[in-house]
Amino acid sequence: MSVGLAIKFSLRRIMAMVLRHGYLLRRSWPRVLELMYWPTAQMILWGFITLFFINHSSWVAQAAGVLITAVLLWDVLFRGQLGVSVIFMEEMWSRNLGQLFISPLRPMELIAALFVMSMIRTVIGVGGAAVIAIALFHYSVFDLGLPLIAFFVNLIVMGWSIGLLVAGIVLRYGLGAESLAWIAIFALQPISGVYYPIKTLPMWLQDVAFFLPSSHVFEGMRAVLIEHVFRVDLLVNGLVLNVFYLAGGIIGFLLFFRSARIGGQLVHTGE
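Predicted structure:
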C-alpha cells in the first residue's frame, strides 16, 4: 500500500470520527450550551465583581472574612444541588434505575434519600473547608451563630430544588444532558450577589434577583457581617421563595420521572 493511500485512509477514519461527534453535538443542545456557557458565565461574574470594587475598594476591609463566608455559603448551594443530581446520575451511570424501581421503592422515597445524602455530603465538604479556614485565615464562619443555620437551610433547600430539576431533565433526555449538573447552578451566581450587593446589578437584573432565595441569603449575610443586623425580612423572603422552589423541583422531577417511565428511559439510559 502506498504512502498516499495510507494517508487517504487515515484521513477518512479521522473524518468519520469527527462526523460521529459532530452529529452527537448537533443532536445534544446541553453540549452546545456548555461550549458557550463557561466563558460567558465567568465574564459576567468577574465583570460585576470588577465594577463593584472599582467604586468600593475598601469594602472588604469593613468586615473581616466577608468573602470567605460568601465562598463557603455559595458552596452550600453548589454542594446541595450537586449532591442530589450527581447521586441520582450515579444510578444512571451504573444502569441501576431499572433494578431500583422493580423494588418497592417509590419516587418520593428516592427523593428523600437524595436529600439525606446531599445533606451529609454538604456538611462534610463545607464543614471541612470551614475548619481549614480557621487554621489558615484565623476566621470562623461559625461565629455567625444562629443566622448561619438560617443561611444554610435556605441555600441547601434551593440547591435540592435545582438538583431535582436537573436529575429529571437528565432522566428524560439522557446522559447527554449530564453537564447541566455542573453548569445549571452557576447561571444563578452572578445574580445571587455572592461577592457584591444586589444593587451592583442593572435594575432589570435586580428584579430577577428578587425571585432567587440565594440573593436574600447573601444580602442577609452582608447585613450581619457589615451592619451587625440580622434581617428577618430577608430570611422570610428566602423561606417563602424556597417553598415554591422545592414544590416546583419535586413536581418537575415527578413529571419527568413519569414521562421517562412511559418512554422506557428507566431501563434504557444513554445519550
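Summary: DSSP finds ten helices and no strands in the chain.
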